[in-house]
Structures are given as structure tokens and as C-alpha cells.
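S1.2 Input.
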Amino acid sequence: MVRGDRYTLDPDLRRKLNAVLTPSRGERKLDLDELGDDRDVEEDGGGDLDQTASRKNISEYLSECEREEGARKVKSLAGMSFEAQEVVVAEDLLDALLGSPGDFVTVQSDGGKDEKRDRSKGRFVFEVSRKCEASEPICQLSNQILTFASDYVEILSFVQDCESLEAGFVLQSLSSAMRELLREYERLILQLEETLREGRLSLQRMFYVLRPMMKSLKSLTLISRMLVGKKGLRAFLILEREWKAGEERRQILGYLLSRCAICIFDFINTWMMKGQIDDPGHEFFLDEKSDLKKEALNRDLNSSYWEQRYRIKPDVVPSFLHVHVDKILLAGKYVNVLRECKVHLEVKNVQTEVFAESFQFGLPESEYKLAKYVTSAFEFASTSLVNYIVRDLDLFGRLQSIKRYFLLDQGDFLSHFLEIAREELSKPASKTSTVKLSSLLELAIRTSSSKDSSYKDDLTCSLHSTTVVDQLLRIVNMTGQSHETGRNRNKDFCAFEAFSVDYRVSWPLSLIISRKAITKYQLLFRHLFHCKYVESTLCSSWTTQQTLKGIDSKSIFANSFVLFGRMLNFVQSYLYYMQVEVIEPASQSLRGRMSREDMSIDNMMFLHDDFLGTCVKDCILTNAKILQIITNLLSVCMLFANYSDRFTDSAMEEAFAWEGDAHAEETANMDPIADLQGIAWDNRFHETVAKFKKNFDAHLAQLLEVLGAFAQGEVEPHLSSLCSRLDSSGYYAASVSREKVDWRM
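S1.3 Output.
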């Protein structure tokens, strides 16, 4: 190893060192000859090292050296002077400081050779062999210097383990940063080698030069021990916790955290700019549930696609991202929606790459740049998606179309439909043809003001298996209110009670107009349709009864006309309250709030859901007690209308039976009024009307009492207007309750 008067490393040793100094991913391989003296290469006749030699892990290499210790003979230094021993041992120490035991330096795994452990993983201890018989001062000082070698090997072993594909991006970034720090140590060793060649290096000087590196190596050693078995952001969080713990290792930890943050920013950039999760090792703070499909939004009432498809793993979110993680998640989700819709986005991520390289952990300026980048990326993604849904997919046009058909805005098509489909709707639901109803609905729409609607073809109709009242009460009962429906579930009901409409919505409009939203629209429609059908039936019955005006029948039908008026006032007042005082203001408010410039899709989803919730609640569809009373009132109205139709048909048939009769001379002198009075008396018409009136008044008084109680509290103050409208004349005020509740305000 001695060439003339100069000392240098043996080429074989250089190959060994180059074999164990494996570069990190994407870095140029470290060649000791590049850091050494180029003149030596020339003197050796060309010193190109074997760059393709197989490389071993440093732990495996030292384990082989340990197994060969017993067969290796150690030369004795007993016959050499102190100065000569120092020079020879110094050369061996330089080799050992870079992880290669020499002629006089031995290595063994920590704990002894007999310990049952994996010697390829763990700490190795270097020491001067006692067999070389070096002087005691040299041995003591050399062993102190060799602690650097033990730390270096432990750090290098950890770094090499972190460079595997299985380690993940975070540990690979960490290993790259730690290897950069080891470069400084390696350069220092090569400088000491140069000093040794010049004959100016003693063991004391070597220890003095290495001593400033002791703190850094010890810190890196402790860090590598803390991170054994950790992966991904869990390793990052450990470093972050240590950084916050104190000032002792804050500088080196800050450097390592800054380097590790680069791969985190790469992940964030890919997610926020492309809507893709590049996380094969599942080490970052976002998780994807690929089994959740967007098609479920159109099928499943309780679909959690938007909330659960991409979600945050809160236990691995770095502290410096806590205030930004929600925006990061939403921005990526928005871009993901646009990407699935094949919308081209002109995204420039150069700013992100420059920012990531200049990021310094814990520096306020870097945190400000991070906040600025996340905010700008979120606003870009949010604005792009909102513009696409509102402008390209005509969101407001869709909502207006749904309002027209479901909430009966400009509902002239409904009047036509009720007229041409009355016979079909009055049949039992089990015997009604959905195909025929669908054809009649289409005919009604195409002959109404909705004929030019762009989305009329997306409307379909169906028959539900339960009445709207049963469905509403079942939903209310699920929220904790217990109330019986009062209906025999096995009894067949009419088609008008089962009739509903549906609406086809494509992605990504289904984010806002989801199956859950359509279901709420259907509940409102079915309730409104039920009231409209009752109103239409009452009007039809009243009109039929008006055909008897040709004769002086006021005394016979006076009570019936009054009851018709009260029933129509109730139904029309209730419809007015729902459509004009609840739905229309809420709809106008929704449109105005959705048109704000800072609106995001999540805000739109919230506002739309809040709008539907307000409509359902203010239309009194969530209060089981009030809903049951209203249902009873509508039932009384339908029963009375049907009874009136039957009586009128029977009366007209009998009262005017003389027309075309064979005994025309006998019937010519008959008094129609007397005949009607007789028919009414025989059919107990006046008594039946009185019973209907008493029943209706009792239910309406009960409704006003309950509405008044709710209106006086802070829960439902808006109900006071409905109370006033239903009893504008104060007729029921005295009969509501003895407590004299005054609901008129």
C-alpha cells in the first residue's frame, strides 16, 4: 500500500468502497477517485474503476468481513517505532472510517458474534485488533476515532435500505438528503487521506479534524434508529415531532424535513393539477376507495361517493398542511371531475416545482408561498368546474326545468294532465298502466307552455308502492318521531296517491342533482300533486253540482256549497302557502346565492340540499302530527267530493226521469224541487253533509290549534301566515281550544 514516499488507498480497496457507496435515486454515483488525486490515477497507468461491479449493501459486506475475521492473520506492530505504528494504523483508520476494515482494524456486529440476530441489519463496532500489538495510546485514540466509523456505517446502512422501491417516496427523499450530509463526511476523509500522503497527519490531528462532525453523525444515527420500521408520512411526522421538541438537532432536522417535503409537494402537485393520486405505497395523506362509483349518485339514495371516494387520512397529515388539507382535497376532486369529463385544462405546474425546491421547513416565507399556491390552485380548479357545470351543462336551466315539473312552477301541463288522465288516476294503483300514464303526461307537456323546454325528454313518470303520506311518515319516524299512519298498508290505494315523476341526470350534474335530491323533489311533487288532485276533484264536483242551478235548488244544496267553499279555501290556501310563500322565495334565494363569484361545487351542493330541506320542512312534511291531520283533511275532502258526485248523478237521473218517459202526461206536472227534496230526504243528504262538515271543521280546528302552538314558539314561526290564511275570518278562533290560542299575527 506504500508507493515510494506517498501513501494511497489500494485500488482493490477503492473498488470495495465504491461498491458499497451506492448512490441515491437520480444522483450520480460517487467515485472516490474523482475526489482523490488525479495524479495517482495517471501514475497507476489509468485508474478507471469497474463501474459495473455488483454492489452490496454495507451491512452485508461487513457481515462477510466479520465471518472472515477468524481466518485472517493480523501482522504484529511490536517491532515498529511509535511513529511508524501511527502512520500504518492511520492508513487503516481512513479505510475503516469509510466502512472497510483493514489489516489492523476489525469489525463485529454489536452484541458479539454469538448473539442470535440478523447481523446484516444493525450496528457494527470497529476497533483496533489486539493481535497487532500496537502501543496502548495508539489503540485508545484509534478506538475513539473508530466510533465515527460505527456511526457512519449505521447511517449508510439505513440510507441504503431506504433507497429500495419498497421504502416509498418519503424515505427515498430522506435517504437522498442523508446521503448529501454523508458526502461532507466522505470528502473530509479524503482530505485526511491527502494529508496522510503528504506525511502531515497524526492520530491526534485526525481526531481533532473529525470532532466537529461528531454531533452531526450522532444526530443522523439517532434519526436512523428512530425511523427503523417506519414508512411514508409516519416517518415524516416523527421527524416533525423531533423538530418541535427542541433546538438540539433542529437545524439538521429542518434540512431533512425540507428535502422530504419535496416528494410531498410532488404528490400534492399531481393531485391538485391532474386529479390523480400517485401513491403506490399508500404513504401519503389521501386515500382512494376505488369501489365507489359515480354511477351510484343516480341510483343510491345514500350514496357516499363524493364524500368517501377520496378522503383524508387525518393521522398522517403533516402539521404544516393542517390548514391547507381541505383545499388540497377539494381542488384535486374538482380537477378529477373535469378530467373524467375530458375537459382540457391549461395547467402550468412550473411554479410548483420551483416552489418545492426552495421550500424551507419552518420558515414563514415558505409557509406563505405554500398557502398562496394552494389557494390559487384551489380557486383555479373550483372556478373551472363551476364554469363547466353552470355554463356548459346549463345547471340553472336544469334546476328551472326541475322546478317547473316537480314544484309545479308554470304548471299548466298539470291541469291538462289531470283532465285527460283523471279516469286512469282514479283506478287502483295495482290496475293502472304506467305506460298509458307516461303517454298522457307526454301529451300534456307537449300541448302546454313547456313544449319548447330543452329538457322535457328527461322527465319520466312512475307509480310508487306506497302513498306519499306513508313514505313521509316512515321518513319522519326514522328521525325519532313515533306516529302511526292510520292506514291499512294492505289496502289498495288509488293511482293518484302513487303517481310520481322522475328525472334523468347525467354526470357531473348528478353531484348537485343527486338521487337524494331527486327523492326530496319527488316528496314535494307527490304532496303537491295530491293536493292539486284533491283541488281538481273538489272543483269538478262543485261544477257538476252547479248544473242543478237551473232549478231553484239553493235550499237543498246550500250547506253543500258552503262546505265546498271551505274545503277549496283550505286546499288552495295550503297550496298557496307551499308554492308562493315557501318554495318561490327559497328558489329565488337559491338562484341568487348560487350566482356568487366565489361559489364552489361543494357550496352549491350544500345550498341545494339546504333549499330542499327548507322546502320539505316549511311545507310541514317533517312534522308527523301536522302531516297526519292534513292527510285526514284531504281524505275528508276526497270522500265528500266523491259522495257529492254520486248524489248529484243519482239526483239528476231520478229528478229528470220524466224526460222521454212513457207517462209524459203524468210527469209533466211534477215539481223538480220537490223531487230533489224527496231524494235528498230519502238519501239522508242533509244529515250526511252535516257529518262531513262537522268532521272537516273538527280536523281543521285541530290543525289550527297545532299550527298555532308551533307558530307561537321559536321552532316554526313561519306557520303563523298559514294560520291566518286558513282562518282569515276568525270563524275557527273560538273553537280551537279553551286556552284561546291566537295564531293570527
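S1.4 Remarks. Residues 554-594 form the longest helix (41 residues).
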